[in-house]
Amino acid sequence: MINLTINNTTVTVEENATIIQAAAKIGIKIPTLCHMAVDCISQESKSASCRICVVEVEGRRNLASSCSTPVSEGMVVKTNSIRAINARRTVLDLLLSDHPADCLTCEKNGKCQLQDLAADFGLHNLRYTGEQSKYELDLANKSIVRDLDKCVMCRRCETACNDIQTVGVLSGVGRGFNAVVAPASMKPLDQTECTFCGQCVVACPVGALTCQTAKYPVWRALNDSSKTVIVQTAPAVRVAIGEEFGMEPGSVATGKLVSGLRMLGFDKVFDTDFAADLTIMEETTEFIDRVKKNENLPILTSCCPGWVKFFEHQFPELIYMPSTAKSPQQMFGAIAKSYYAEKIGVEPKDIIVVSVMPCLAKKYEADREEFSNDGVPDVDIVISTRELADMFKEAGIVFDKLNDSDFDHPLGESTGAGVIFGSSGGVLEAALRTGADWLTGEDVKEIDFKAVRGLAGIKEATVNVAGLDIKAAITSGLGNARTLLEKIQKGEARYHIVEIMACPGGCLNGGGQPYSCHDSSILEKRMNAIYQEDSNKVIRKSHQNPDIIKLYDEYLEKPGSHKAHKLLHTKYTARKAFK
Amino acid sequence: MSCSCGCDTELNLLTQFPKKKEKLAAYLSQLPLGEDREKNRGYLIQSLHKAQELFGYLPECIQLYVADKLGLHLAEVYGVVSFYSFFIDKPVGKYKINVCTGTACFVKGADVVLEEFKRYLHIEEGETTEDLNYSLGGLRCVGACSLAPVVMVNDKVYGNVTKEMVPNIIEECKLND
Lengths: 579, 177
Prior knowledge:
The complex is a heterodimer of chains A (579) and B (177).
Chain A: E1 2-6, E2 9-13, H1 19-25, E3 36-38, E4 43-45, E5 54-57, E6 64-65, E7 75-78, H2 82-97, H3 113-121, E8 144-146, H4 156-164, E9 171-173, E10 180-182, H5 199-203, E11 209-211, H6 215-222, E12 228-233, H7 254-264, E13 268-271, H8 272-293, E14 299-300, H9 305-314, H10 328-344, E15 351-357, H11 361-366, E16 372-373, E17 376-377, E18 381-384, H12 385-394, H13 416-419, H14 426-440, E19 458-465, E20 468-476, H15 478-490, E21 497-501, H16 520-536, H17 546-556, H18 562-568
Parallel strand pairs in A: 1-7, 12-13, 12-15, 14-21, 15-18, 20-21
Antiparallel strand pairs in A: 1-2, 3-4, 5-6, 5-7, 8-11, 9-10, 16-17, 19-20
Helix pairs in contact in A: 8-10, 8-14
Chain B: H1 13-16, H2 18-29, H3 37-41, H4 44-55, H5 60-70, H6 74-83, E1 95-100, H7 103-107, H8 110-121, E2 134-139, E3 151-153, E4 156-158, H9 166-176
Parallel strand pairs in B: 1-2
Antiparallel strand pairs in B: 1-3, 3-4
Helix pairs in contact in B: 2-4, 4-5, 5-6
């Protein structure tokens, strides 16, 4: 342990701690832009490039960046000396001199760390004016907007893309005043291997990387009386949206969410969890089939569009491995525009399916060619949790004061197995619950597979089902996925089933969720809320969902049938490492 | 693979010049590269030097080739290429015309000369003509201030250049062909 003094207070920390960590321990928040600690996967970005966090260290000539300077025995630190304060202000002034002052119309208004700093520092005027960067907006994809004029070169997105996700699309480009973070040859994101996972958006402290918003198309749809407008909400949305309205992280707001959506004017409020149950029916059928034949194992889950694009680019040789089952979002769209359309006697083209997702890649997924029929997409518009919260605010809906109400039928009925899709390990647990019943032919009572839960990057478990030891692995974060897949490729690890989610922790930490600033305690609360919601459900196995049973009886025949394949399965495209 | 600069020729630069590719492959294969990306990154700059020496410039296909061999992401290779002005990712002309815009030359009207070259060649500073004959650039002092303003074409120095001399300088390049 190391003892040091910060602002006349002694503090004892571990040997390899930095000044910023030591200061946090005694309740001092040293301001920073570039520092990013992702606790749940033990990743830290400390490029020390922003220079906002400088402090005075006794006996040292220069100011020290507190995010990258390790503590030493007897160190005396002043975070609030006039020299440190002046230096910080100058740095902030210089950052602002090349930053558009368009806070009022910025996507990040109210959630921008640069804006917060300016407020905390009490700036009253901009000291420096001069040349400002001018770049074209990258609007070419459906998920992410890049506005390089707002980039502060903190390079947190680079850490997210290269180190955490190992997608490696972003890099510091150019030098001096012309330096920005961009893909190779300054290409737009849609011409790269970008998976649209949105973790760069989560990492960006300012408005340089934001979500491509689709709020206005939703407003327009809601006001089009010739259309039947239905909405589906993903499992992870209900345990996070409350945060946007000051509710405690981990509050389960399912009932309020349904009431709010109804108030916005949706004709029917449905649940993606229903489609998650449907996914389990198809995926587990495929899984059991492969296990019985002992071929093409492990089966990899395919619900996550970021992960799908990742393996298409990075592991095209493994393209036969993932389940062919569509994601819940796309299954919902396909069923809404066939079975449901027939049921209510409306033409598919007159139904508009809106998705509320914790995810930015879902926008890209809905736009993929194979998910349209004759130019009519299965899912028309995708908005993120944050965008929905914005719409509630715009509509004057006081979310936290809403009464609870229930989803509509039939696409709103779901089980606990559908809910847990929102957390890393959930899809696999849901598949095991159904798999156990189907393999034993019984109603298995032990259905809490706790070994597969938790935020850890790679989890392994062996579960005995009907006398068969099922070897399972669960990974979240694409870097972890890469590690695991390489092991599988080399034959170093053998599994029957592997669940993969692009975002660390799963969908609850998706790129479209309320900004958690990588606070793992918030992620943990969201996760606990998901499992709480699961255990509150009477039915907790997908194949026992009465409306799913009805759907197969009335329409799809049985899981894996010809019709089910046509509607609920997809194929993947081997993409080059680079287009 | 599509090309970033829009030209078709560089699409197959590696297949177009198999001997050069072989040489680059031979150079890269003698580097002590391994699984460790961090270590491999240490060999990036010298690999790019070799590649540019062989091919003259570093279009995306060459960057991708080097990135692949070193186990690096294309973006980080481009990051290095874009950082050092020595590396170029677009082809340069056969004749590299550089107008000195150092203090002495500037005072003696280098800006007017530069403008005239731009007008004549229909390119901006830092660009190359479509036929890949001429590149136009500016440079700082070449140590011939008494001859200001100075223009260099490859290794040849022109002194006391006026706007009127610009067509002749360009013509002279053609005569050398």
